[in-house]
Write a structure and sequence with these properties.
Number of domains: 3
Strand order of the largest sheet: 1-2-3-4
Oligomer: single chain
Largest sheet: 4 strands, mixed
Radius of gyration: 24 Å
Mean pLDDT: 89
Number of helices: 8
Helix content: 55-70%
Distance between the termini: 54 Å
Strand content: 5-15%
Structural class: alpha+beta
Shape: elongated
Length: 305
């Protein structure tokens, strides 16, 4: 289950993206900083946790900006104790979803050589002897970024690795079957995470697996079953979604906003058969994109030469 904006407050707006912080993040931050050891003063623990905040935030901005680059929508980032969530809605194409998801971990990849260079620089400047707290903090930031990168790339849906796996499988298996495979792999990965959490007595990892991974895997499994049923329905020939290039399904999948009558927008030419209301655009059942019927029209195939 993804977190909502309930209980969160707005931090700032950047590139048209609203950033919110859940109140529990502050509570967990105080708890975690109070348990940090190895520093001569708590201020370095605060700086370490703020660095974690910055890394997670840039990771989520990577998702959001990449999604916008491929024509998707991304207007909200929420930070909470288990990390961050960028609410992205890329076009339902494998390449678009792949780039939107992969851009997040790529931010962490880019930070690896940067932080590594700073560590070598600190050693050259003699920080381990003259500024041991600063050197230790920098090393911990390097560790945090690497751990976040590795964890996010685990092929466990809905982690980035699981969604990247789904996007790659989309090419040979299609939208529905790729999601089904990713969800099943996610359930296997969930079992592995729970075993690891028990063996290492990690309460946070156990909660993450049960609160985030389990519901998301189940939701993905249910959605995949629905998509597979949808794939078997008849299609309107001569039309294709301008966004995902999928032919629209035959059936009363559209609802009139005036009289709530269900109808087939392509059979009635985007007009409600009950009240006669005419609609300028029609939404794609597959990806949610809206376009006029003229944009939906699929050009006839070129005659052979």
């Amino acid at each position: 289950m993804l977190p909502t904006r309930d209980g969160s407050f707005r931090l700032f707006r950047l590139f048209g993206i609203e950033v919110y912080l859940h109140w529990s993040w502050l509570l967990v931050a105080v708890f975690q900083v109070s348990r940090m050891k190895g520093y001569s003063t708590p201020i370095w623990g605060v700086l370490e946790y703020l660095a974690l905040f910055a890394i997670v935030l840039t990771h989520e901005f990577g998702h959001a900006l990449a999604c916008r680059q491929v024509g998707g929508k991304a207007n909200l980032i929420l930070l909470w104790p288990f990390g961050g969530v960028a609410y992205v809605s890329p076009p339902q194409r494998p390449g678009a979803t792949l780039w939107s998801i992969a851009a997040g971990p790529l931010v962490n990849v880019a930070l690896v050589p940067l932080l590594t260079g700073l560590i070598y620089l600190s050693r050259a400047l003699g920080w381990p002897e003259t500024l041991p707290d600063a050197n230790a903090c920098l090393y911990m930031i390097w560790i945090i970024n690497l751990v976040l990168l590795i964890f996010n790339l685990l092929p466990v849906y809905p982690l980035d690795g699981g969604q990247i796996l789904r996007s790659l499988l989309w090419y040979p298996f299609g939208r529905a079957r790729s999601l089904m495979i990713a969800a099943i792999v996610g359930f296997i990965g969930l079992a592995g995470l729970l075993i690891f959490a028990v063996l290492n007595q990690s309460i946070w990892l156990g909660i993450l697996a049960l609160v985030i991974v389990l519901p998301s895997c189940w939701r993905g499994f249910v959605e995949a079953r629905g998509l597979m049923r949808l794939e078997k329905t008849p299609r309107h020939t001569g039309f294709a979604c301008p966004s995902c290039q999928t032919a629209p399904t035959v059936g009363n999948f559209w609802v009139c906003g005036h009289c709530q009558t269900s109808f087939d927008s392509f059979s009635t030419r985007a007009a409600c058969p009950n009240c006669g209301a005419q609609f300028a655009t029609t939404a794609c059942v597959e990806c949610g994109a809206t376009a006029s019927l003229t944009e939906w029209l699929k050009p006839p195939p070129m005659p052979p030469r």
